[in-house]
Amino acid sequence: MDWREVIDELDSGVERIVRTLSKLSDQDLRAASALPGWSRGHVATHIARNADSLWNLLEWARTGVEIPQYPSLDARNAALDEGAGRGRDELTEDVRATAARFTEQARTLPEDAWNAPVEAMGGWSHPAWYTVYRRWNEVEAHHVDLAAGYGPADWPEPYVRWSLGGTLADMVALPEKLRGELAGLRITATDSGEAADLGWTPGGPEASGSGRALLGWLSGRTDGSGVSVRPDGRLPVPPPWPHRPADF
Question: What is the spatial order of strands in the sheet that 185-189 belongs to?
Answer without folding.
Answer: 195-198, 185-189, 206-209, 228-230
